[in-house]
């Protein structure tokens, strides 16, 4: 397959006739009308939210009077009897930022629900979840206040206005109408979001939203359509990994919600408070100490000197960011990410237990006594804050087998050594430099003071708020040392974790290339199968070893180079097991460059397919250039004969040194003219010519000057070559016109003389749509855009037009993928696969060419 231009002249620039371009306003109006026609309720709700916000106040939100009348909550409904407020409260927002989020949520969440289960059901789900979500929550608050429960009493005076309550409820109801992948995403992400808000923020609106989501699941269950079962499902391990990843992400993001929301009523709000830099007052410390007579350290004098600056901020946030990295690795099956999450969560649990007095403090006797039953709720919250990260660590430890992707040999050991080494080195650096700068601290420090202070430099500031500050830096130099060592350590951990997660160990055995060539000789692998032998492919084999799949992993997308190579009887099983392997590694499998015969396999699996190009095929047995439509081909052949140019069928090893040098020169001239790199992936270059099985057809004149070169990849069956596929095409700038037509015609005539050659493929012009086919869905439009973007430089469409001169048969080529949600990632991965070495300078060159 080749995407190179046939002519040497620069590609024609695509120009846009501004007179024919519709105005942006008209286009926006048309798009809005189309959206309103398809999602009338979602659009209507968004308009109502906007109008209400404009009337009640966009910037600062509704006035107190409006909140008292239309907002919901315990005091509103129970004390004042505003029974309508659970429904009216969902039409208001707190401020302008929330309005933007609400508008987006209305169009996305409600629009999604409306598309899946229709307008009528969406309206019903909207009303039911609004009323029951708040209603059940208010009932729970009423019982809590009556029983003297602390949270219910603490939030009884809060008034809630929240448009997201029915949005989440409707989206969860609609999940029953989605496919298996979307259904899991909606539920995991939806429930994780509402749960983290309840646990870390804990306002009444958070409770109502979570209850609305649960009610939505119940409503959707009553309406659920018949279950559609396909023959391929993502593995249960993937489901578990996704859930554990969401949980770890919740533990990481939750404290940030507590820090920035200002609401600290949630069950896990203490964890968030620990990772903030707010120092409590002495009165708050005394109140906390009334929970139990833990140690006298609990009520010692608290230094209210706030430790600020970039260093403490980084030491507080980088552990959370490292947990986010671990969560991402968990979703991709990385064993290292599992151990990283276990270590950090265990550390958080131990630090929290130490801070809350559940573990002995340094130098203090440890005695736990219940002081008063009236503080049992706070004690429970603190205990839960310790047990949750510990439980997360234990759950991940119990599911280690579900994370099979190991790092490359030595990478994890190197990470541990670098982490421990940097900790020791930074600690020694702090002690040594601190001793030299001992007079730069107040009071002046001793060596023993520095040794005792070392652990605190690496612990988030929030965990140290009950610790008496022994000394503080007195100038910028000492401050940089005091705050910098901890930040430097956590930067090392964070960057090291990212590098370690990027080093998954996946690769073929040493004999894999030979095994692949044996399979190719026996089974062929289709007209594009020989591309699987190229350098850069990863190879995967079935357990039987009878089927191989070549693929590239680009940004988490595993793109196959062509069809599986193996017996047809094992095709469906090989595809399913390869998809499972990708799933275990956290990759999205994409089968690329497939022919029509593979459609039944992927249709049975419920995958999505789309055409990505057309292969042009010639039948040598009926090759004939007589007739008017062959005039261009005959003229090219005659022109070559008059110029004394002949066709030479050979291999790279048979070339003379002069011929090999000329081919390299021709290729280099082409690359320099483009000012962009050669395309890769399914497009061969100079290196691929050197394979002994690849044949070359050269255009050579009497002076042994090479005018042009084409390469032909073999296709086998039962050990015999049954066809050839065109790959490499280059010619000199000053070569005779029609030299490429001449070489292809001469190749076809040569193949006609061999009875065993069944086909001659002119390969595929990648990303060039079939004639008359207009882009349909999102996937089609995505690849249409990619092909259109690269067309001015690489000329895919002009290449396809060139191949039409040979009156070929057209065979559509498609790709198959399990999840349309990943299409943007697939498009980017394809672009990177074709242009793996694209530099920033070349990107600028490409964009400059597109703009002209």
Q: Look at the helices and sheets and give the structural class.
A: alpha+beta
CATH architecture of the domain at 1-25 and 598-825 and 833-852: 3-Layer(aba) Sandwich
Contiguous uncertain segments of 5+ residues: 1-21, 279-307, 362-374, 771-776
Q: Can you list the strand order of the major beta sheet? A: 3-4-5-6-13-7-12-11-10-9-8
Q: Give the class-level CATH name of the domain at 1-25 and 598-825 and 833-852.
A: Alpha Beta
Describe, in plain words, how this protein is organized in 3D.
The chain is of the alpha+beta class and 852 residues long. The two termini are 28 Å apart. Among the domains are: 273 residues, Gcn5-related N-acetyltransferase (GNAT) (Aminopeptidase, 3-Layer(aba) Sandwich); 188 residues, Rhomboid-like (Rhomboid-like fold, Up-down Bundle). The strands form 2 sheets. It has an 11-stranded mixed beta sheet with strand order 3-4-5-6-13-7-12-11-10-9-8, with helices on both faces. A two-stranded antiparallel sheet has the order 1-2. α6 packs across α7.
Brief overview, please?
With 852 residues, the protein is α+β, with helices and mostly antiparallel strands. Helices cover 52% and strands 10% of the residues.
For the structure shown, list the relevant keywords.
disordered N terminus; transmembrane; two-stranded antiparallel sheet; single chain; transmembrane helix; membrane; 852 residues; alpha+beta; LPG_synthase_C; Rhomboid-like fold; DUF2156 domain-containing protein; 52% helix; Aminopeptidase
Which helices and strands occur, and which strands form pairs?
Blueprint: H1 24-38, H2 40-56, H3 64-70, H4 74-79, H5 85-88, H6 96-117, H7 119-146, H8 150-154, H9 164-174, H10 180-200, H11 204-223, H12 236-261, H13 269-274, H14 282-289, H15 310-331, H16 335-355, H17 376-398, H18 411-436, E1 441-442, H19 447-453, E2 472-473, H20 476-501, H21 512-523, E3 538-541, E4 548-554, E5 557-560, H22 571-584, E6 588-594, H23 599-605, E7 608-618, H24 631-642, E8 646-650, H25 657-674, E9 695-700, E10 706-717, E11 720-731, H26 739-752, E12 759-764, H27 778-794, H28 796-803, E13 809-817, H29 823-834, H30 840-850
Parallel strand pairs: 5-6, 11-12
Antiparallel strand pairs: 1-2, 3-4, 4-5, 6-13, 7-12, 7-13, 8-9, 9-10, 10-11
Helix pairs in contact: 1-2, 2-6, 6-7, 6-9, 7-9, 7-11, 9-11, 10-11, 10-12, 12-15, 12-17, 15-16, 15-20, 16-17, 18-20, 24-26, 27-29
GO molecular function, one term: aminoacyltransferase activity
Protein name: DUF2156 domain-containing protein
Membrane topology: Multi-pass membrane protein
């Amino acid at each position: 397959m080749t995407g190179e231009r046939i002519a040497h002249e620069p590609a024609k620039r695509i120009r846009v006739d501004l007179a024919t371009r519709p105005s942006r306003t008209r286009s926006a109006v048309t798009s809005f009308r189309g959206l309103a026609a398809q999602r009338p309720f979602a659009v209507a709700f968004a308009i109502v939210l906007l109008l209400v916000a404009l009337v009640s106040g966009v910037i600062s939100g509704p006035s107190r009077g409006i909140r008292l009348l239309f907002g919901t909550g315990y005091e509103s409904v129970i004390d004042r009897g505003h029974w309508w407020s659970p429904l009216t409260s969902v039409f208001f927002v707190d401020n302008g930022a929330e309005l933007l989020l609400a508008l987006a949520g209305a169009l996305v969440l409600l629009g999604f629900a409306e598309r899946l289960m229709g307008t009528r059901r969406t309206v019903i789900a909207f009303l039911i979840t609004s009323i029951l979500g708040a209603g059940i929550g208010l009932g729970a608050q009423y019982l809590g206040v009556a029983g003297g429960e602390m949270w219910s009493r603490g939030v009884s005076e809060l008034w809630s206005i929240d448009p997201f309550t029915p949005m989440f409820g409707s989206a969860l109801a609609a999940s029953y109408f989605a496919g298996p992948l979307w259904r899991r995403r909606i539920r995991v992400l939806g429930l994780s979001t509402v749960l983290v808000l309840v646990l870390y923020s804990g306002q009444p609106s958070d409770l109502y939203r979570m209850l609305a989501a649960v009610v939505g699941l119940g409503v959707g269950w009553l309406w659920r359509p018949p279950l559609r079962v396909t023959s391929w499902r993502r593995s249960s391990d993937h489901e578990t990994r996704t859930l554990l990843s969401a949980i770890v992400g919740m533990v990481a993001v939750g404290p940030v919600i507590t820090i920035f929301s200002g609401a600290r009523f949630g069950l896990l709000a203490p964890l968030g408070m620990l990772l903030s830099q707010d120092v409590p007052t002495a009165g708050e410390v005394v109140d906390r100490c009334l929970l139990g007579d833990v140690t006298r350290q609990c009520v010692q004098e608290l230094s209210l000197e706030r430790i600020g600056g970039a260093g403490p901020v980084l030491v507080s946030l980088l552990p959370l960011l490292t947990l986010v990295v671990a969560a991402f690795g968990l979703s991709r099956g990385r064993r290292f990410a599992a151990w990283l999450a276990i270590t950090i969560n265990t550390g958080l649990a131990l630090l929290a237990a130490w801070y809350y007095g559940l573990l002995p403090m340094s130098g203090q006797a440890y005695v736990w006594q219940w002081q008063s039953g009236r503080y049992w709720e706070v004690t429970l919250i603190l205990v839960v804050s310790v047990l949750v990260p510990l439980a997360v660590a234990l759950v991940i430890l119990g599911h280690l087998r579900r994370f099979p992707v190991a790092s490359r040999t030595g990478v994890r050991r190197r990470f541990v050594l670098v982490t421990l080494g940097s900790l020791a080195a930074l600690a020694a650096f702090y002690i040594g430099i601190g001793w030299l700068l001992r007079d730069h601290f107040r009071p002046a420090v001793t060596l023993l003071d520095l040794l005792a202070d070392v652990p605190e430099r690496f612990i988030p500031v929030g965990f140290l708020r009950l610790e008496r500050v022994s000394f503080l830096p007195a100038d910028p130099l000492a401050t940089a040392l005091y705050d910098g060592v901890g930040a430097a350590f956590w930067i090392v951990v964070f960057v090291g974790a990212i590098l370690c997660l990027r080093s998954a160990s996946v690769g073929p055995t040493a004999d894999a290339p030979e095994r692949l060539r044996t399979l190719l000789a026996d089974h062929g692998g289709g007209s594009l199968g020989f591309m699987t032998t190229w350098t850069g492919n990863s190879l995967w084999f079935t357990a039987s070893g009878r089927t191989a799949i070549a693929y590239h992993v680009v940004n988490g997308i595993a793109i196959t180079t062509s069809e599986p190579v193996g017996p047809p009887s094992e095709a469906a099983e090989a595809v399913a097991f390869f998809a499972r392997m990708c799933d275990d590694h956290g990759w999205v499998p994409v089968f690329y460059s497939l022919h029509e015969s593979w459609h039944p396999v992927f249709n049975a699996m419920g995958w999505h397919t789309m055409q990505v190009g057309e292969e042009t095929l010639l039948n040598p047995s009926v090759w004939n250039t007589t007739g008017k439509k062959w005039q261009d081909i005959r003229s090219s052949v005659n022109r070559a004969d008059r110029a004394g140019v002949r066709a030479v069928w050979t291999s790279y090893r048979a070339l003379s040194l002069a011929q090999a040098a000329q081919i390299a020169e021709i290729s280099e001239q082409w690359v320099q003219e483009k000012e962009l790199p050669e395309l890769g992936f399914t497009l061969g270059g100079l290196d691929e010519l050197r394979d002994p099985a690849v044949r070359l057809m050269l255009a050579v004149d009497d002076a042994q000057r090479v005018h042009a070169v084409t390469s032909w990849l073999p296709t086998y069956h039962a050990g015999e070559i049954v066809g050839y596929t065109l790959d490499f095409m280059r010619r000199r700038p000053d070569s005779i016109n029609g030299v490429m037509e001449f070489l292809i015609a001469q190749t076809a005539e040569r193949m006609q003389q061999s009875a065993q050659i069944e086909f001659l493929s002119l390969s595929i012009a990648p990303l060039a749509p079939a004639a008359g086919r207009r882009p349909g869905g999102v996937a089609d439009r995505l690849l249409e855009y990619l092909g259109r973007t690269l067309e001015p430089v690489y000329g895919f469409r002009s290449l396809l037009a060139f191949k039409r001169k040979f009156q070929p048969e057209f065979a559509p080529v498609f790709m198959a993928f399990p999840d349309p949600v990943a299409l943007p990632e697939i498009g980017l991965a394809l672009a990177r696969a074709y242009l793996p070495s694209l530099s920033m300078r070349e990107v600028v060159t490409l964009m400059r060419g597109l703009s002209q």
